[in-house]
Amino acid sequence: MASSDEMDTSPMVSSLLSSLANYSNLPQGSKEHEEAENNEEQRKKPIKAPQMGTLMGVYLPCLQNIFGVILFLRMTWLVGIGGVLGVFTIVFMCCSTTMLTAISMSAIATNGVVPAGGSYYMISRSLGPEFGGAVGICFYLGTTFAGAMYILGCIEILLIYIVPQAAIFKLEGLEGPEAEAALLNNMRIYGTCVLTLMSIVVFVGVKYVNKLALVFLACVILSILAVYAGVIQTAIQPPDFPICILGNRTLVRKGFDVCAKTVEKENGTFTTKLWRIFCDSELLNATCDEYFMNNNVTEIQGIPGITSGILAENLFGNYMEKGMIIEKRGLPSVALQDDPFTNTNSYVLSDITTFFTLLVGIYFPSVTGIMAGSNRSGDLQDAQKSIPIGTILAITTTSLVYMSSVVLFGACIEGVVLRDKFGEAVNGNLVIGTLAWPSPWVIVIGSFFSTCGAGLQSLTGAPRLLQAISRDGIIPFLRVFGHGKANGEPTWALLLTACICEIGIIIASLDSVAPILSMFFLMCYMFVNLACAVQTLLRTPNWRPRFKFYHWALSFLGMSLCLSLMFICSWYYAIVAMGIAGCIYKYIEFCGAEKEWGDGIRGLSLSAARFALMRLEEGPPHIKNWRPQLFVLVSVDGEQNVEQPRLFSLTNQMKAGKGLTIVGTALEGTFLDNYDQAQRAEQSLRKLMETEKVKGFCKVVVSSNIRDATSHLIQATGLGGLRHNTVLVSWPPNWKQSENHQTWRNFIELVRETTTAHLALLVAKNISAYPSNGERFTEGHIDVWWIVHDGGMLMLLPFLLRQHKVWRKCKMRIFTVAQMDDNSIQMKKDLTTFLYHLRIDAAVEVVEMQESDISAYTYEKTLMMEQRSQILKQMHLTKTEREREIQSITDVSRGSIRRKNPASAAAQPSLNEEKPGVSSERSEEEVSVHLLGKNVIPSPASPVSPAGGAETPREKAHMTWTDKCDGVKDKPPGTITPGSIKDMFNMKPEWENLNQSNVRRMHTALKLNEVIVKKSKEAKLVLLNMPGPPRNRTGEENYMEFLEVLTEGLNRVLLVRGGGQEVITIYS
To answer: Does residue 985 register a pLDDT over 50?
Structure first.
């Protein structure tokens, strides 16, 4: 029967293999688009599996995406400004970055089937939804701004090189900022028109864009071949592009034909058009520009050719300030110091201030586009083979083209022409066009179409990427962009893309937009490298890429290069891009859908957790690092709903999200029969933890009885060093009713087990009266009744509670009980000093009680009262002694070191009888608290003989109500009298005998309760020491009655029992 059930839920092997063999995945949106466009054909013909190879599917698309507007419009200018060496360094750095990223991407892309979605899919499945969403948005923004950059390049080619007369804002007669503003406004108007037109084309029919892609690619390749042909041509016969230079200043080749001041004709000397530009008339005696009169006019060749040796001049950079005249090195120039700068329109000027990092930001977009192959992974015949080969070959090809271009441009073109961004010195020609063969128009037309095509590709790709992110559902506010037309076209995503693209168009400057998209692409590439490095280092079993030529060191190098380039390009853009990614990451973390994609970050978390747990095993935490690691024990009803929900509120208020919290509950029965109930109980715990904002884990144990289940929880919960040290439980309600007798017996067993395990115990009485997380106390007190020093928990808990907004306005008060022969005034001073050293702000009050009223508050507690008194007495020592003595008392666990020599312990003189010098030299062992066997009264005031051996932890035990003593030899100073000790320890110690001892204990409870109620009736919370339970089972009910009487009349009580170690220290 079991096997037939499994057959129903598990697929047959044959059917599994069949589904895998027939797997195909078209890019997002394309399948639905094809179905809607060709509905009739679809009914007749089955869909054929995509059959694109490496060349058509990866290599050529990558070439088309990598070669772009920067090569045609800015590469010559970059070489002129940065020099051949400087720009070669930039190109090498950027190409190395993309090559390393391609290696990492190939490893990820060949590690299983990668559906369409490109880098977003790869990163989100490798690093998780948070990183995937953040990087996906960065990649989307980069692609969108790339669209804006291509459109701006397209408009620049159109308005400057093809039809300058089409400009709406005319540039003639304008100078400086006015001319610049007119140019930018032209770009904005035309850019918006072109963006609108392209958006409509993409909206109407994407398939036309895809069909034109080959045409656009042909334009790019032809243009590049024309440049190489032109370089060869310059070696044979350089083209004729003369440049006119006045002194050493380059002149704009506009408004004159002859590069000379005067020309000699048959009947005399005549002035030229150039003369008229700089002088007020045609006459030879006209008033002319000072610089024009003092300097000669020279004509040089703009393209001297590859054999001219011009490379030596162009090796080094020539960075310029905005508005500087482009000057030819080596030519004489006579300029007066106070010569006013006139005729600015006649000279070729630098339009922006240039520096190395700016060039990096402008150049980097020309190496982006390496993801084109992985984006088409759904269309490939063998993606795992084609993506690495095609992408790496494309990057190699483009890198060689770029590097050779830098050298060839520097070797063929005159420096002033290279620095002339818009070709004003060569009749307004595109500078790279002057080098092309057979005509500059080959490059102009080719680059125009290639920029148009690249812009259309960006506007096609970006909306699909946004749609993919939206449909994953990881970013809730983007879900609307997952919808589209009936055929799956991302209409809303296209609209958003066009709006963001318009921001780039409004910026209007190609040089300003390029660094923005550089940031987003660099961040995307950085995370691709990180994803590969993380997966490689974690060695996840599923990490088995077919591409073997990768290494984590290469990925880290690529990641480091990306990060460095981000800050080299523009540190403020880098910070903004990281801020955007960080915000998206946190947004997905808090609001995004829970996705489990088997990502590497989860594996990284597991590795880090294992490492941290191994470190925690090295030893117990220092007192300074101690915090309550809570195990909250709750009970559930028959419907598996939590019966004490306010325990969760108290946990949240005590922890504030810090440290470890484990919530556990016990169910009765067998695991096989009660598995479903256990699951429901766990879901109930998780839901309540989420509601009350308790960060932690939950555990449900099923056992034959509740007692055993609770014991298993306390013993087995936690892992290694990540274990609880404190148990929080609520007081058993209605324990006096006969049907609930097992409840309070279980409670006492719980107290015993926590004591044995050296765990602190917090018992919340009247838990339903505790405040919820939404309540606020505007005033009131948290009262601590410090009857004995129990490791410092009583001091620490109110401090932790007051960190939470519920208790923040409450003030802390500490009450301590003194006997009649104690010096109450001195005790108060000592306690105030002690709290000052603990950095705890609290009011102190000493309450005096008769010795008989408190003597029965357990033998153990009396001993610990001595320890408390001893701590306070140490405050009388000198500062140096005090520092040593106080810490020796408070730092060592009260049961950590015990001696086995009772006679010497009782016979030693007290601390007060020693000389101060001797006392200051005593070791921590000697002044620590020693809880010995039954028949000894040790005291921290009495040093223990070094002859006694230290007990092992297994031999330690907390003293309980039934511990007794036969007598003492010395009176410990400042505590109870020998007569009262004898009286106290001669009485019958067992709770079960209803005799004088129980009467006295009830008297103690009543008297203490009277004092506590009198002082703390109005307190918002009262914290009390919790005595240990009786050792014999038959007296347990009297113990419960004692605690009931002790806390009667108080609204909220937290009974605290220490775990046997100090939890608070006076030192930093």
So the answer is: no
Long-range interactions of 316-319: CB distance < 8 A, separation 24+: 316/83, 316/85, 316/86, 317/81, 317/82, 317/83, 317/85, 317/86, 317/356, 318/80, 318/81, 318/83, 318/415, 318/419, 319/81, 319/82, 319/354, 319/355, 319/356
Peptide bond into 973 cis (omega under 30): no
Tokens coding 96: 């190395």
Q: Which amino acid, one-letter code, is at 344?
A: T
Return all residues near 21 (Cβ < 8 A) that are at least 6 apart. none
Residues linked to residue 762 through DSSP beta bridges, in sequence order: 728, 1056
Residue 380 DSSP code: B
Q: Specify the pairing of strand 811-819 against strand 242-246.
A: unpaired
Q: Who's near 640: CB < 8 A, 6+ residues apart?
A: 677, 680, 681, 684
Cα separation, 595 vs 471, whole angstroms: 13
- Give the model's confidence band at 692: pLDDT under 50 very low, under 70 low, under 90 confident, else very high: confident
% of the chain exceeding 70 in pLDDT: 76
Question: For residue 155, which amino acid is it?
Answer: I
Q: Give SS3 for 494.
A: helix
Tell me how far apart the terminal alpha carbons of the chain are, to the nearest angstrom: 66
Which residues on adjacent β-strands are paired with residue 761? Answer: 727, 1057
Query: Rounded to whole angstroms, how far apart are CA atoms 376 and 26?
Result: 8
pTM: 0.68
Q: How many CB atoms lie within 10 A of CB 210?
A: 13
Q: Return the DSSP state at 438.
A: S
* Average pLDDT of the chain, as a whole number: 77
How, if at all, do strands 760-765 and 726-730 pair? parallel
Helices (H), 128-165: 129-156
Q: With 80 as the cut, is the pLDDT of residue 486 above it?
A: no
User: How many residues can be counted in the chain?
Assistant: 1068
Q: Are 763 and 1047 in contact (CB under 8 A)?
A: no
**Tokens representing residue 1013 in the block:** 């109620």
**Three-state SS string across 84-121, please?**
HHHHHHHHHHHHHHHHHHHHHHHHHHCCCCCCCCHHHH
Q: What is the pLDDT of residues 819-870, one digit of tens each?
A: 777 778 888 888 888 888 888 888 888 887 766 555 544 334 444 545 555 6
* Residue 29 structure tokens: 């949106």
Q: Which of 243, 274, 247 is nearest to 258 (CA)?
A: 274
Highest mean pLDDT among 141-150, 800-809, 973-982, 1051-1060: 141-150
* 3-state DSSP assignment of residue 564: helix
Dist. CA 77–CA 419, nearest whole Å = 5
How far apart (Å, rounded) are the C-alpha atoms in residues 300 and 928? 96
pLDDT band at 593 (very low <50, low <70, confident <90, very high): low
Phi then psi for residue 732, to 5 deg, are -65, 115
Count CB-CB contacts under 10 A for residue 560. 14
Helix (H, G, I), strand (E, B) or coil at 847: strand
Q: In whole angstroms, what is the distance from residue 703 CA to residue 708 CA?
A: 6
Give the sign of the dihedral formed by CA 604, CA 605, CA 610, CA 613. Answer: positive
1035: Cβ–Cβ under 8 A, 6 or more apart, which residues? 961, 990, 991, 992, 993
- Copy the structure tokens of residue 816: 């301590």
Helices H / strands E in the chain, number of each: 40, 15
- State the Cα–Cα distance between residues 822 and 826, nearest whole angstrom: 9
DSSP 52: B
pLDDT level of residue 906 (50, 70, 90 thresholds): very low
pLDDT tens per residue, range 948-984: 343 433 333 343 444 433 333 343 333 333 333 333 3
CA distance 253 to 670: 96
Report the C-alpha gap between 537 and 392 in whole angstroms.
23
Q: Which of 562-576, 632-646, 950-964, 1036-1050 has the lowest mean pLDDT?
A: 950-964
